[in-house]
């Protein structure tokens, strides 16, 4: 039985520009490393490390959680290197953005959450925190080699493959408050949280005093399915009152809008049905 030996050099820059310079120098022979949990998982599956690892652990300004106010805008700024466990247990997140805490609770095992970072989960592109972040209208901040920019997470996920960036943080705007709100995060897996999910569904739905839906965000992901919002379903729901006809239309719209990937365990149809049933159930609960 042969033993594979890790043959990679680890670089530890102390600022963003230094990290970026190293990435430009080594390019495809390198990668940024946050908590390293994804690399470890890939290594265990036989995927080799790139020969040059650029650790972000010592880069200043990438860790921490700050509740900020700019004019009339209030938001939470989370550094990309902030541990998942720290996010889950932070009192402000548990109070004002509890959906993120709920989602992180269902990511892998405690040991992984103690090492993994919010930035690593998002930068991966398939992280289980992403559906929850999408329903909270999260933004990301990133360094593009010249300056730090901010962009809606939804847009960034759709364009990230076209540009090389270094993720620096996640920004959560303060919730818009409807009279009645339901929020949910459901990770349906083959077994406990250690496995990849069959499907992950998250939503925030609000209605006003007369029962009209005035806010809706729905997102889906899980496994090899890239997380994204269900915008056609959102559009169907906004400014409507929940009733049996609307629920039937929502169910059919989800089946038509969501196009998951099949694998050896579950078909694309099964994933669609699970997603539609979860959202149907949550809307029925809000109706009551």
TrEMBL record:
One Pfam family it belongs to: FAD_binding_5
Keyword Ribonucleoprotein annotated: no
SUPFAM superfamilies (UniProt xref): CO dehydrogenase flavoprotein C-terminal domain-like, FAD-binding/transporter-associated domain-like
PROSITE patterns to which the protein is assigned, alphabetical: FAD_PCMH (PS51387)
All residue ranges annotated as the FAD-binding PCMH-type domain in the record: 3-177
Coiled coil segments of this chain: none
EC number: 1.17.1.4
Record keywords: FAD, Flavoprotein, Oxidoreductase
The protein's name: Xanthine dehydrogenase subunit C
UniProt cross-references to InterPro entries, sorted A to Z: CO_DH_flav_C, CO_DH_flav_C_dom_sf, Diverse_Substr_Oxidored, FAD-bd_PCMH, FAD-bd_PCMH-like_sf, FAD-bd_PCMH_sub2, Mopterin_DH_FAD-bd
Molecular function (Gene Ontology), one example: FAD binding
């Amino acid at each position: 039985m042969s033993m594979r030996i890790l043959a990679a050099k680890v670089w530890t820059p102390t600022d963003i520009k230094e990290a970026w310079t190293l990435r430009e120098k080594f390019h495809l022979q390198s990668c940024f490393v946050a908590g390293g949990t994804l690399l470890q998982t890939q290594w265990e599956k036989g995927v080799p490390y790139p020969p040059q690892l650029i650790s972000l652990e010592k880069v200043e300004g990438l860790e921490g959680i700050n509740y900020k106010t700019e004019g009339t805008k209030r938001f939470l700024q989370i550094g990309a290197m902030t541990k998942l466990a720290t996010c889950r247990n932070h009192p402000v997140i548990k109070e004002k953005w509890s959906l993120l805490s709920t989602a992180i609770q269902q990511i892998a095992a405690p040991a992984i959450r103690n090492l993994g970072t919010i930035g690593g989960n998002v930068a991966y592109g398939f992280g289980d925190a992403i559906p929850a972040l999408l329903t909270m209208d999260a933004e990301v901040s990133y360094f593009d080699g010249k300056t730090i920019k901010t962009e809606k997470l939804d847009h960034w996920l759709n364009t990230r493959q076209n540009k090389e960036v270094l993720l620096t943080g996640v920004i959560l705007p303060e919730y818009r408050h409807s009279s009645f709100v339901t929020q949910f995060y459901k990770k349906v897996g083959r077994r406990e949280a250690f496995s990849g999910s069959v499907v992950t569904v998250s939503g925030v739905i609000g209605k006003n005093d007369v029962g009209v839906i005035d806010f809706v965000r729905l997102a889906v992901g899980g496994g090899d399915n890239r997380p994204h919002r269900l915008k056609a379903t959102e559009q169907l729901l906004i400014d409507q009152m929940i009733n049996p006809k609307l629920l039937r239309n929502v169910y059919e719209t989800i089946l038509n809008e969501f196009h998951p990937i099949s694998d050896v365990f579950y078909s694309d149809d099964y994933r669609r049905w699970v997603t539609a049933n979860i959202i149907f159930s949550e809307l029925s609960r809000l109706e009551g």
